[in-house]
Every structure is written in structure tokens, then in C-alpha cells.
Amino acid sequence: MDIQQARGLLEDRVVFITGAARGQGRAHAVRFAEEGADVIAVDLCAQLDSVAYPMATPEDLEETVRLVEKTGRRIVAEQGDVRDRDRLAAVVQRGLDEFGRLDFVLANAGILPAAGAGGASLTAFTDAIAVMLTGVYYTIDAALPALLSNPDGGAVVITSSAAGFTSVSTEFGTMSHGAAGYTAAKHGVIGVMRHFARSLAEKNIRVNSVHPGGVATPMVLNEAMAEWVGHHPSFSDAQQPLLRLPMMEPGDISDAMVYLCGPAGRYLTGVALPVDAGQTLK
Length: 282
Fold this sequence. Notes:
Belongs to the short-chain dehydrogenases/reductases (SDR) family. GO terms for molecular function: oxidoreductase activity. InterPro entries: NAD(P)-bd_dom_sf (IPR036291), Sc_DH/Rdtase_CS (IPR020904), SDR_fam (IPR002347), SDR_subfam_1 (IPR023985). It comes from Mycolicibacterium poriferae. This is Dehydrogenase. This protein is α/β, with parallel strands linked by helices. The protein has one domain: Rossmann fold. The protein is built from 10 helices and 7 strands. The protein has helices at about 5, 25-35, 60-70, 85-100, 115-120, 120-150, 175-200, 225-230, 235-240, 250-260, and strands at about 15-20, 40-45, 75-80, 105, 155-160, 205-210, 270-275. It has a 7-stranded parallel beta sheet with strand order 3-2-1-4-5-6-7, sandwiched between helices. Helix 7 links the parallel strand 5 (about 155-160) and strand 6. Helix 6 runs parallel beside helix 7.
């Protein structure tokens, strides 16, 4: 067997992942560990009033730790809020103290505050912007000193959405403050991505965004969202992909993350990559 293949694509690298307690974030943590990376993980592990579905818990984050350690790699996992830049910097520093370097940043933390009474509140808009736009900027900014000190450069990947290209709202009935905030934040991070891609290219730090369609995670598959979609079938119709494939799993997005961070993606920066089975082509 080829030694390089046995070692994994990301051997002895370090990745910082937000929203790592479950869903896409957990899948990314496990996949990067399987490819040989150590993991710095952070998640709020608490509930926001504007979010109608149950959010991740400390026990979820503990399960991510267990799954990463099962691969034989190391993980530093902390509870923290991406709306708190200083907290993010402290988590990154703990990871640096443990692992000595940082190579990749996956700004993945997200919420979908569209359903229920919470989604109808103005707070849902401000929460969406704070978590998925300001929080993405804070994540990158907090990690930037460590990336800049890495002589090999590095890569940043922002989790946007198909909603970064088209609105979550499909008709008057699906309009809500939370849906507006989600759409605005997911559009906005394309600008953040392009800002950093231009600015950091000379430092050999690549910055891209990934735009998933519907992914089978607790953020999408829950009672509150099912009830909301049941009342607004036009929303479900708008999410249908062109390719007749099963609903994407979190690991399908992890494939894109590894590609953008790994050797195969070394020439890519400033790319807004749809992973949506053609959903946004309609």
C-alpha cells in the first residue's frame, strides 16, 4: 500500500470547526480526523429563543469528541458562542497550546430561525445575522493570527447555503423575519469570503464558500420545520433538486470540505461552490 495514501490527505494538520456538536459540523470533524487531522471544535450547546427546534447540547459535543477520538486523532472541544469573538479566540488559543498549529478553518455554525413564533419575531432576523454573518467574520478573524503564523498557509471554508443564491422565502406565506435573516446572512458571507480571498491570497491562505441544498441534519429534520413546511408546500417545492437523488447527508458536504482544504483544491480560492444537486439552476 502507498504510504502517502495510508497517512491520509490531511495528516498532522489541524482544523478549527464551529457548530461542531452535531450535523454537518460533527461530520466534518470526524471526516477530517479520518484524513489525519486534529480538531479544535466549538459549539454553543444552548437554545436560542428565536429557534423553534431543539439546538445542540453539551452531550452532543461530547459525542463528537468520542467519535473523533475513535479515529485515533486528538480533539479540543469547548462550548462557545460565535457571536463572542474573544471566546472564539480563546478556544483557538487552547487548540494552539495543544497542537501547535492551525491549518484550516470551517466557519460552519448556523441556525434556521424561520419556523414558529420565534421565526416571526424581529429577534430571529438579528440572531440569524449575528450567528451566520457576524459570527462567520468573528470566526475567521479570531483564527487569522494562527493561520498567518503557519508557513504553509492554509484554507478557510464558509458554510453558506443554496439560500446564498436565492431567497428562502418563496411566497408571502413563507416570509418571516427569520427567513429574511437566513437569506441575508447566507448571501452576505459570499462577500465576506471574497473579501478574505482577495486579501489573504498573498499569504497563501485560500478562502471559499460551500452552498448546500437540503441536508439531513437536525436543523432541517425536526417537528417545527415539518409543521412549517406542511403549511407552506411552495417552500418544499422550491427546495427540490434537479438530480433525482436521495436527500444529502452531512458527509456529502464533508467531501467538499476535504476537497477545498486538501491538495486537490490547492488552486481554488474565491469560489462559491454549490453542492445542491442542481437546486439553484431552476
